[in-house]
Amino acid sequence: MFKKILASNPLIMLIFSAVVLSAPIWLAPFGANYPDLLQKFAIFGIFAVGYNILFGLTGYLSFGHATFLGIGSYTAVWSFKLLTMNILPAIVLAMIVSGLFAVVIGYLSLRRSGIYFSILTLAFAQMAYSLAYSVLTPITNGETGLQVSQQDPRVLDAMAGIAVTDGIPSTNLFGALIKSQGGYYGFYVAAVLLIIAFYISLKIFRSPFGMKLRAIKSNQTRMKYTGFNTKPYLLTAFVISGMYAGLAGGLLASIDPLAGAERMQWTASGEVVLMTILGGVGTLIGPLLGTTLIKYFENIFSALNDSELHSMFSFMPEGLQNIMVTVVSPFVGEGWHLTLGLVFMIVVIFLPGGIMQGLTHLFNFVKRLVGLGGSNKVIDNMAANDTPNNTLNKHKGEA
Amino acid sequence: MDAILIQILNGLDKGGAYALIALGLTLTFGTLGVVNFAHGALFMLGAFCAVLFNKLLTFSTKVKDESITFFDAYKEQPYLELWFGDLGTTIIDYSVPLSILFAIPVMLLIGVIMERGLIKHFYKREHADQILVTFGLAIVIQEIIRHFFGANPIPMPPPEIVSGSAPLGAMLGLNENLVYPWWRLIYLAFSLLIIGAVFAFLKFTTFGMVVRAGMADRETVELLGINVQKRFTIVFGIATVVAGLAGVMYAPILPPDYHMGMDFLVLSFVVVVVGGMGSLGGAVLAGFMLGLLQSFASMNEVKSILPGIDQIIIYLVAVVILLVRPRGLMGREGVFED
User: Fold this and answer.
1) Which sequence spans correspond to the domains of chain A?
2) Which residues of A touch B33 (CB under 8 A)?
């Protein structure tokens, strides 16, 4: 009964919203409550939640999702240039355009499964990346990256009589500047979108549609033999996750109106895979957890340098301190990716379910420790009545 | 005519590198059934074998500069030159070809350690897991190299005698102005040699026969009392050596940096897929074919008709092949045809 309430949608959403919206407060002790980082948490959280709908539910490992992020960014910046500096149309357009690309790429890639699917997405991603750097320069502005400028037409803004007077115009949401309140406004916009995105993902996880996607993951052949056409479901999942990526890309551009092709590189797609796997693929919260941890430690680790390490280990005697600094320094600063790669390998080898699996193990362990004292006795007493239902309970308690 | 000849050479040259990397990748996949995303990193490690070997050879000390007589000047001079005089200078000049001798044992060791330490635990896991763990390994290798060698490309000169261009036109009785870098010709010959050696090894030795039998039907070979696993581990080592050698010889063409592996990885996967998963001949054929296609696509005449085609031709071919003929050019029927 209690468990049922705890797992109900409104309560989860309530807790989730409270946690996300109060992030600036409870992240303060960790030194992570400044807007830049908070925005990153929220935006890449959206990206990872969307990616998880594809990879987590269907098991199709895409190595090209950064393409949709890049397309979303480019679309948003073009919307800033041609239509208006309001971010709402930009984000909506970013989702639509990246969704359209996802339909095409997904339709072709999903004709194969397994490693072939991965390589197909990789090939499309590389094509998009190379084209963005070369032929599509009129659209993408090549290596410089696409930027907004004062002279852009901005049709809608012009009709509304909003004119840019000086410098590069800033993005806004119906007049309120995104970078106002020291950037916290931008975070709250992203946070609200994250909450909506999470809610949709929750609904998908708990819908018959999500169930079918999981069935495809566990045994696609069997699904096909029962006369079930898996393709439309897979494509829907692919497009949804592509639109999530587009939303994230649009948000990135909304916070800083600039788009570059490096966002589309295949190693950028690899990063979202890292986030999802690290947190726990196929779980609701896992990808968000992974994103937050990676972005947080990236921020902390890559800022460390030797002198800071020396002050960190200053409580040790001189010799030991030098040894510690020598040992630790390859893993921080520039070497942050080394740490990330190692942690990722360890997770894939020992904990394929990511942090969420680790937490579940821990939780069960604690429950067993505590359970030895009290609650098991109750179950045992109930089991003594020997009704089938209670026997079931007893077994559950043992397991 | 000249332009076409140059493009053919360019294509074969690029194709040689693709074919070598893809050959190793296919060997790994065909024997162990493991998708190795760290193969590009092994190529990069090979290139850095050349860099490291060069560093070792030019290990220097400060000596008095005799050419300056006004005051006491000091210059760096490698120990080799001090000890062996002109012979030492020659050895340093030939550091890239000589580092092949250095790279073979090093890469073999790395390969065997990698297989025993990591890959063997992933035979039974899904392909997605194999991709992920080797992707992680590739990042780790890459970052270790960056830690020791820095992020900038390190130029590696070829030996003095072949640093110029070959007067190809004069040799073939064509246009006098037709020249081509010596080292690239050497690379082409080298890649053909290595490919030939690998094929001969698999075709004409007992070891190779067992490996081929194991690739075709592992269970039966094992029932005959042959330790297939041990041989496959060695094959993984050989694949590592092939990738490493491809990297060593590529160092004078492209100054090695820590990131070069990732760039070649995607390409070589595409080559393997086009050739057909697990088909050695297919990998070589596809390597040369894609190299040729790419170099012809980068001709100005072609680019003016289809702008940007040179950037995407390889991926385009891969997508078409995968969609139309999933087993690739020479893949066996039923192997990974899903």
Assistant:
1) 32-264, 355-399
2) none
Looking at residue A395, its pLDDT comes to 41
Cα dihedral: A26, A28, A30, A36 (round 10): 110
> Which are the contacts of B182, defined by CB distance < 8 A and separation ≥ 6?
B158, B162, B163, B164, B165, B166
Taking contacts as CB-CB distances below 8 angstroms, the residues of chain A near B311 are: 127, 130-131, 133-135
Q: Could you tell me if residue B315 is inside a domain?
A: no
Residue B148 lies in a domain: yes
For position A158, what pLDDT does the model report? Answer: 77
Contact between A245 and A98 under an 8 Å Cβ cutoff? The reply is yes
Q: What does the alpha-carbon distance between residue B268 and residue B315 come to, in Å, rounded to a whole number? A: 11
Q: Count the neighbouring beta carbons within 10 Å of the beta carbon of residue B138.
A: 24
Chain A residue with Cα closest to B127: A115
Minimal Cα distance from A265: which residue of B?
Answer: B263
> Hunting for tokens 């162990």 — which residue is that?
B32
- How many domains is chain B built from? 1
The Cβ of residue B113 has, within 10 Å, a number of other Cβ atoms equal to 12
Instruction: Decide if B209 is inside a domain.
Output: yes
Mean pLDDT of chain B: 85
Q: Is the dihedral of CA A343, A348, A351, A352 positive or negative?
A: positive
Q: Which of B319, B321, B324 to mutate to test the interface with A (most CBs of A within 10 A)?
A: B319
Residue at B89 is within a domain: no
Query: How far is Cα B71 from Cα A397, in angstroms, rounded to an integer?
Result: 89
Burial class (CB in 10 A: 0-12, 13-18, 19+), A39: buried
Phi then psi for B273, rounded to 5 degrees? -65, -40
Q: What is the span of the domain harbouring residue B114? A: 2-58+97-258
Report residue A383 as tokens: 């089991």
Sign of CA pseudo-dihedral B217, B219, B221, B224? negative
**Residue A15 to residue A25: CA distance in whole angstroms:** 15
With tokens 């007067």, the residue in question is B167
Q: A28-86 pLDDT, tens per residue?
A: 777 777 888 888 899 999 999 999 999 999 989 998 899 999 999 999 999 988 888 88
